[in-house]
Amino acid sequence: MNIYLTDGSETCFYTAAFRACTDRTCQVTCENNVQLSLGAQIITVLPDEEKSARVRKKLQECDPRSLQDISLILRRGCPQKEMIALAYLRLIVRSGAPVRDRLSLSAVRDAADAIKKVLNEAHRLTGFLRFMESASGIFYAPFSPDNDILDLILPHFLRRFADQSFVIHDIARKKAALYNRNECIITPTDESVNVILSDREEGFQMLWKEYYRSVNIAQRPHKKQMKGYMPVRYWKFLPEKQPPE
Amino acid sequence: MIDADKLKILTESAKYDVSCSSSGSSRQNRKGGIGNASIGGICHSFTPDGRCISLLKILQSNRCAYHCLYCPNRADADVPRAAATPAEICELVLAFYRRNYIEGLFLSSAIERSPDHTMETMLETVKKLRTEYRFNGYIHLKGIPHADPLLIAQAAQYVDRMSFNVEFPTEKSLKLLAPQKDKESILLPMRHLAQKRRAFAEEHGKHTARFLPAGQTTQMIVGASPESDGLILRLSEAMYHRFSLKRVYYSSYVPIVRHSLLPEKCTGLLREHRLYQADWLMRFYGFTAEELASPGENLPEEYDPKCAWALKNMQLFPVEINTAPLEMLLRVPGIGTLSAQKILRARRYCLLGFEDLAKMRIVLKRAKHFITCNGKFYGTENLSAVKTMLSLEAREERYEQLSLFSTQENYQSALTGQL
Questions:
Q1: Is the minimum CB–CB distance between B33 and chain A shorter than 8 Å?
Q2: Nearest to B44 by CA among A25, A237, A119, A33
C-alpha cells in the first residue's frame, strides 16, 4: 500500500490525487499525523501547479461547486480529511456530475458532514470570538478553533468592524489576520504574544461578567443545554466563563 | 461609564422577557459606521439556564407607574430602582459590541412617569445610537402601550424589530392582572406598524424593505390566567396572519410575585414546550390551529402535537417515502423540515429503503409507524401498541419526575425545533 504524504496545502492534495489516480488502495494524508502500517510505502508529494490545475479543471467541468466543497473539507482538523476529500473527488469524477444530493452514498455523507462541521464552527466563532482592547487601541482576539477557519470568518469581521483596527490570532495554527482600517493581511506568528491592555478593558470585562450573571434565571438551571450550544473547549477565551479570581 | 449596580438592576428586571433573537435583518454597515446585522442571527454566549445571549437586554428604567400584578417592577413593589441615561446605554452597547460580546441592543422599559415620557427617552436612545454613534448593529425595541403613535412610528424608523407584549390571551385576563393596559393599546400600534411595513414594501419592492426589517414579535404569559392552549394557538395564528408577526413567544408563568389572583405554582415547562412545538407546526409545517387543538382544549402532554395529530388521523398513514409530496412528509411524526428536504433530494437518484433513511440520520423511532419504504412497512400495525410506545410516560423511568428535558427526544427538539 502506498501512503501519499502532502504538505497540507490544497495544491499538494490535488497533486497527490493526480498521482494516486489509479492507485485504488492508497492513502493520502498530511505530514504531521502519519501512521505507518506494515508494508506501507511512503511517497512524499511535492506541490505541482500543473498537475493540480488539471485535476481542478476536471472537477470544475463536472461540478463547479465541488472545488469550494473540497476546500472546506481540507480545513477539517481531523487526520482523515484527505481521504474524505479523495473519496468525494473520485465519485464526482466517476459520475461526471454533481453528487452532493446522493445522500444514500457514504462518501457523499462523509463529505457533507465534514463541510457542515467546518461551516458550523465558523458560524459559532463569529459569536464566540472575543476581542480585547490594547493600549494602542488595536482590538486583539485570540482563538484556537478545531478547523482552519480564520479566513472563513475574516470577511464577517472586516464588514462589521470596518472602522476598528484588529488582530485575530489563531493560536493553534500560529497565524494571525491583521487589519489596520485599510487593508488586511494574514501572517504567520508565534504561539503567544504579549498584549498590553488599555485602562478601560478590565472595567468593561467586569461589566460584561456582571451582565452575564444578572441575565441568568437561576430558578431554571439547564447546564446541559448551555454546554450543548457552547462547548467547553471554547470557554478558554470567554471572559464570562473565567473562574472569579 | 454605567456602574455595575445599575447594570445589575436594569438587567435583572429585563431578563424575564423571552425574546433574544437577532435574526431577520440584513442591515449593512455604512462608511465610517460600525456594525451590521446578520440575517440568520448570531448567539454570542449561553447562560447556565441554557438561554442564549445575543443582545444586550436592558431596561431604560425600572421605575414603574403601573400596577401589573405579576410584574416584579410594579409601582408598589419594594425593589431597588434605577434608570439609565441614553448616553450610558449607547456607550455600553458600543463597548460590548466592539469586543464582540453582543449582536446589538434589546431595549425595554418600565413606564416611568407616563407612556409618552418613557417612549421619548427610548426614542432618544435609539436615535443617538444610530446617528451619533453610527451604530448599524441590531436593535430590538419594546413598544410602550398608550404612547403617542407618532413617537412609536418615529422610533420604528431606527430599529430592526419592534414588539408589543400581548401579555394575556384574553382582554378579561388582561384587565384583571394588568389593570392599566387594554387590548387596544397593544393591538392598535401593532396593526399600524404592520400596515406601514406592508405599504413600505409595496412602494420600495419586497427586497429593499427597510422599515422594521426584522418585523414584529409579541409575548404571552402562559398559565397565569385560565385560557386553554387551543385558544392561545388561535390567537397566535390570527396574529401571524393579520400582523405578519415573525414570532410569538410563550413564557410559562413563574410566581415571582405573590397575589391572591395569581396561581401559586409554576406552570410546567412542558406546557410551554408543547406550545412552541405547535407554534412551529403552524409556521413551518403547514398545520392550522384547528387541527392541533379545539378551542377549549390543551395540547396533550404525552405526545408532541404532531404525533398526537397523526395518531388521530391514522387513515392518512402510512405514506410512501419515495412518492409522498413534501406537505405529507412534513406531517410524519419524527420527520422535520431538514429531514424532509434530505429525502426529497436523495430520492431523485434512487429508491430509498429503510436502511438508507437510517444512514441519512433520519430519526425513525416515531416515523417508522407512519411510513412505508419502497412498499415495505417496518412499524407496528396495532394502533394501541403504537400509542403506548410513543407516549412520553412509556419512555420515562418509572419513578423519575416528569422533567422537560429528561428524554433525549424533547431535548433535541428544544435545540433544533425539528419535530
A1: yes
A2: A237
